Fold:
Amino acid sequence: MFILPWMKVNAAEENESYDDRYCTTCHGADGRGNYGVQAPRLAGMEPWYLQRQLENFRAGLRGVHLSDIEGIAMRPMAAKLTDESIADIIEWVGSWDYVPAEITIEADAGRGAQLFAQCATCHGADGLGNETLGAPALRGQNDWYLVTQLKNFKQGWRGNGDGDTFGQQMMVMTQMLTDDAAINNVVSYINTLGRD
Amino acid sequence: MTRFVTRREFLNLVGAVGGSSAALRAGSALGLLPVTKTAKALDLFALGTNSKKVAILGGGLAGLTVAYELGKRGYECTILEASHRCGGRVFTVRNGDLIDEIGNRHYCEFDDEPHMYFNGGAARIPSFHNNLLAYCKELDVELEVFVGENNNAYFQDDAVLGGKPVRIKDYKTNVRGFLGEMLAKSMSEQEMNEPFTELEAENLLSIIHSFGDLREGGEYTGSSRSGYETGGFTTHGVQKDIIEFRDLLKSRLGGRIMTASEGEQGPPLLQAKDGMDNIIAGFLRVVGQEVKYRAMVSAINVTNDGVEISYDQDGVRHSLNVDYCFNCIPTHLITGLDHNFPADYVKAMKYVRRGDAYKAAFQAKERFWEKEDIYGGITRMNNRSSSIWYPSGGIHKDKGVILAAYNFQGGLYHTNKTQEERIESHIKDGEKVHPNYRSLVEKPVTIAWHRMNHMLGCAARWNRSRSGWTAEEQLMFDTLQKPVNGRHYVIGDQITVHVAWMESAIQSAHWAMEDLDKRVRAELA
Structure:
């Protein structure tokens, strides 16, 4: 594995330089996700989805609501990215091997399966996502992150941005998850889908 | 409607709470001071012809302490530092320095002079932090006095006197006068419950009189302790008007003002001359060759006879196999690494919350505070910026660097703002104390520890209840303090019960090395 030096930013020639490859500080070694700072898994994320989210953060469509604690931390990072930096990050993320995420949430997967029928319309019965429909893979993501995002969509802390069509869809869809138990159930079902 | 409490009612209230318990609670509000003994030389076994390899993850103070001490005993140490600099939260910024906040990377533009620096992290050394002071002496780090408490600095609260800044000496003198008068009156007018001898009563009254600077008869009529309105040298001084006690009671800051010179933040305090990172430089003069910079750990695998570490440097993944590992990476970042730690160890790491302390500083175009009789010390404000610190050094030079904000517990407020919003907020807060502040300050830096690259947090937060540690929290702490397989130690102020002090980082390193030493002695015996 190698990393190309990219986008050296020099305020002055003698100053310490840095590129925009900050991802692993928060998202863990090889982008495996880090519970400690609630940063999700990037390894294995689809390039088109990663790009859309970075662009959403940059455009202020995500990470704006003060209750979206982790999104608020992500947004200033993305706000400074150029198109070239985003392309570089996507290439970098693509170099990481996917490692199955640790299962931390166990709930009623049976009930979750019933709820997931709705999710499957876009994200696929196998939870592997559908680029045409703009729906990312769910299985293999850190389960605690899925829970946080479902709650954020449901509360309107994510997806509420003007022009965030997919986010608005998710805000509507998550209303069927009537309480925290339902959210945990559906995520525990996603956990059973596994991913190599 | 506000109900006013008479002085007598106040005394009865204090009495009703119970003298000793009230005193105890007042004492604990200061924060309990840890017991420190004279620094003892570490008695560690020297390896001689034996060979042991050690990896130190993170070049902060705890890691450097380990490298220094074990290096002396013949251990072969390698320090992996993820960032471009050592020191961790011992961080001094000067001209040209990078402040690597994720999403707000900026460079310090202070004038390039020795006194133009800002301690963005550790900034004070209490005179009883003996292990730290012993290293400063041993490593030839020059120290000077840090002025923390300054009676000429200000206290500012929008709720008091229309927000007008009040000198701390005026606040304290008046509060003490009124409290002293209440005590004196209660002694002369009421029979004391506890019988005193005549001498004891006389001495107590004397203490009360000097505490409040009272007149005959126990009256407080103002005091020259806070200086005169005019005169005092070649003409007789004209006393200042008393500030009404009720006005002073409108502020919630009272506790902070009255205890500012007590305990660990009280005088005498010290600092490293020309910047606290000179302590780090002192260690690096000895162990600097052992540091690999921009070397980011990706995996830690503890085996029965050692530790296998992977790290990325210059775009290449390296491996490092050692006998022992001292890990100073913040616990909330260790959880993001590939590792094989036991479940209870991981549970403890996941439990610890990360602190969000925030600091900011300005370069001042002129030393305007010196024109207001202020030389060093701290102005305290009842707003989010909280404090203005005036530099202890560089007296009477043209310019200086002042701390413009320090929010230890609620730093996320500023962290969540843009750089421009942060700066504007500090200017607005500071203008309430120094009217021309806006035109006097420039070249800001902000240090939001919650977002600093490779840190993402200030001091660890172990206990979640104000009433102290739960048994479960203590158990998790004990678990994380102990080594895995006798091979892997987590160190740093994060593994102490007294976080955010350099002395704590050093003592955590000492604890771990002494534990290691027992194992090594047993193995080599």
Remarks:
- DSSP finds 16 helices and 27 strands in chain B.
- Residues 53-83+278-352+463-524 of chain B form a domain with the FAD/NAD(P)-binding domain fold (CATH 3.50.50.60).
